[in-house]
TrEMBL record:
<dbReference type="InterPro" id="IPR003779">
    <property type="entry name" value="CMD-like"/>
</dbReference>
<keyword id="KW-0575">Peroxidase</keyword>
<dbReference type="InterPro" id="IPR004675">
    <property type="entry name" value="AhpD_core"/>
</dbReference>
<protein>
    <submittedName>
        <fullName>AhpD family alkylhydroperoxidase</fullName>
    </submittedName>
</protein>
<keyword id="KW-0560">Oxidoreductase</keyword>
<feature type="domain" description="Carboxymuconolactone decarboxylase-like">
    <location>
        <begin position="23"/>
        <end position="96"/>
    </location>
</feature>
<dbReference type="GO" id="GO:0051920">
    <property type="term" value="F:peroxiredoxin activity"/>
</dbReference>
<dbReference type="InterPro" id="IPR029032">
    <property type="entry name" value="AhpD-like"/>
</dbReference>
<dbReference type="Pfam" id="PF02627">
    <property type="entry name" value="CMD"/>
</dbReference>
Length: 159
């Protein structure tokens, strides 16, 4: 597959990516646990079919110490016993926030209540930002057909 757009050679695309990456840094510096953040990024990327981001976040999570078993079960987290209640709430929010168009009322109050049970307001704000940001990256990559899924190495993209 050949990319439709050179994301790093187009002035507008570079500026857009710069601002999205800047927002990513705000989330990364929050107190939201890194492991939870990577699980959330991976799940949104799976839903959106962004092969580059699935590859990237799987490898980044492995590099950070995540287990292959947990990573292989992210897509089936509801049936898996390897995630904490807090992680399950984060994954549920990620799914609801990524599939927001599928629900007429947006993210259900019950989902938010489960998140609020485990995460404080700073972490909640980071989660909302993370979901918006990873969905933006996913959409940019999928629309432009960013190739090279499978070639990513941990630390390759320093967001």
């Amino acid at each position: 597959m050949e990319a439709r757009l050179d994301l790093f050679g187009n002035q507008v695309a570079v500026k857009v990516l710069k601002y999205i990456t800047s927002a990513h840094h705000v989330v990364a510096k929050s107190k939201l646990p890194d492991a939870t953040a990577e699980l959330m990024r991976l799940r949104a990327s799976q839903i959106n079919g962004c092969a580059f981001c699935v590859d990237m976040h799987t490898k980044e999570a492995l590099h950070a110490g995540e287990t292959p078993v947990r990573l292989s079960l992210v897509a089936a987290w509801r049936e898996a016993t390897v995630f904490t209640d807090a992680e399950r709430a984060a994954l549920e929010l990620t799914e609801e926030g990524t599939r927001i168009a599928d629900a007429a009322g947006g993210v259900p109050d019950e989902v938010w209540a489960r998140v609020a049970k485990h995460y404080d307001e700073e972490e909640q704000a980071a989660m909302v930002g993370l979901i918006a940001i990873i969905n933006a990256f996913n959409r940019i990559n999928v629309i432009s057909q960013l190739p090279h899924a499978g070639d990513y190495h941990a630390g390759q993209v320093l967001l």
